[in-house]
Each structure stands twice: as C-alpha cells, then as structure tokens.
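Everyone, study these two lines:
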Amino acid sequence: MSKATLRCITSVKPDKVKVEAGAKVAPLWARLPFIRDDEKLGRCFWAVRTTGNYSHDCVLGVAMAQHALRHMREDTDRVYGMLGSIVIDMMAVGEDAVGRGVIVGFFGELDRAIPRRRAPQVFGNA
C-alpha cells in the first residue's frame, strides 16, 4: 500500500443529498473494488494484488478498468479525475505486487474505451 497522505474526492455534493440525521452516505468511489482507506496510510487508489498468473491478472485488470470506466461515466460531480492517483499508487505499490498482467489488462481496457477519430492527413499520403 502507498504511504501517500489522505486524498479526498468530493463525488457527491452535500446539497444534492437528503440524509437522515446521523446517517452516513458513502461516496460513489467507495464502491470501487480497487480503492481502500487505511487509518494509518490514508486512501490507496490501487489496492489490487496479483494472482500470480499473467492471464488471470490480465482479466483482473480488465475488470478493474471496467469498474473505473463505469464510475467515471456515472460520477459527473467529481472534482478531479482519479487516473493520476491510480497510476501514482500503482507505482508506489510496485510492479511485483501489482502484477504486469493487471497493469496491461487495466490500461488495455482503458485504451479500447477511448473514442478514436481518424487524424487529418497533414503531410499528404505519407
């Protein structure tokens, strides 16, 4: 886990939520399976461990990316994106703990999700 200081995402604006007195409302990011809060270390945006099997890790990475993509589409009130925090915590945890397959699967799925446009030809047919 990262020894990063606690980072806070305000995903739900308080004025948009009606809550009974004393009830706690979990922010949208709290349902993401790869984010964990630790009382000592703070929030870790990449609490995923390798299975030890490259193929299984690729599938795990794809699943984590699908959760992240769904969250990014649904959480329109977030203050900033979380991808930077995910990358920082991936690096802090280290490739051995994360697993190369998890990283490949995660970013491969993000890459597939990015809309593509054909770039204009700038230098002719080259």
